[in-house]
Amino acid sequence: MARCQVCRTEYKKWRLTQKVCGSVVCAQAYAERVREKQERRELRARKEKLKTRSDYMKEAQVAFNAYIRERDKDKPCICCGAPLNAGAVGGGFDAGHYRSVGSAPHLRFVEANCHGQTKQCNRYGSGRAVDYRLGLIQRIGLAAVESLESDQAPKRYTIDDLKAIRAEYKQKLKALKTQPERKVA
After folding, report:
1. How far is Cα 8 from Cα 28, in angstroms, rounded to an integer?
2. Most buried in the list 47, 105, 109, 138, measured by CB within 10 Å?
3. Best CA proximity match to 105, nearest among 173, 57, 72, 145
4. How do residues 152-181 score in pLDDT, each as one tens digit?
5. Where does residue 139 rank: exposed (0-12), middle (13-18), buried (19+ CB within 10 A)?
6. What's CA 107's distance to the chain center, in Å?
7. Residue 134 near residue 127 (C-beta atoms within 8 A)
8. Is pLDDT at 185 greater than 70 in this prediction?
9. What is the pLDDT of residues 62-115, one digit of tens each?
10. CA distance 129 to 134
11. Positive or negative CA dihedral for 55, 118, 73, 106?
């Protein structure tokens, strides 16, 4: 016995591909569902075709920042050492870049260049570069900080690069959230 996908009653299948009971009402409702699903799929595909490189850049940045926030949620602010309020309204803290995205766009998706930072330090304190540098030296070491500061290699992200970055950081975020218990570094 099979179960009708519309009214959920049990029925005996007449054909191998039959999805609903013999009711005309159920058949029409099922056909409407299939049509709406197909329309949503086509709309999603049309919207995907209209996306610009900038749209993909925003999506990749959102995925990257979400990963950084999850990675650093148990650590103190890189600048002031205050605890990061992960549960606060609006996220509580930002994924702040040491070298800003405006001055060093090629370091936009470099994990060593981005750390959890209170909104006060990041937005209203203009990033607090000196304090950020001191905190960064403590976390990753002087050689790595100097490497970040001297990196001037231009990088132009293609749409395929941005799709890959978005997928990578979504996967990393999912893996990070499924870890049973994390150690605070």
Report:
1. 15
2. 109
3. 57
4. 888 899 999 999 999 999 999 999 988 876
5. middle
6. 17
7. no
8. no
9. 999 999 999 998 889 888 888 887 666 566 788 899 998 988 999 999 999 999
10. 9
11. positive
Token pair belonging to 39: 């329309």
Q: Nearest 5 degrees, angle CA 136-CA 137-CA 139?
A: 60
90: left (phi over 0), alpha (psi -120 to 50) or beta: left
For the CA atoms of 114, 76, 123, 112, what is the dihedral angle to 10 degrees?
-10
Phi, psi of 3 (to 5 degrees): -115, 130
Q: What sign for the dihedral angle of Cα 178, 182, 184, 185?
A: negative
Bridging pattern class, strands 2-3 and 10-11: antiparallel
Q: Identify the three-state secondary structure at position 168.
A: helix
Long-range contacts of 50-53 (CB under 8 A, 24+ apart): 53/157, 53/158, 53/159, 53/162
Contacts of 173 by beta carbon, 8 Å cutoff, 6+ apart: 63, 66, 67, 70
- Cα separation, 103 vs 124, in Å, equals 18
Q: Is 5 helix (H, G, I), strand (E, B) or coil?
A: coil
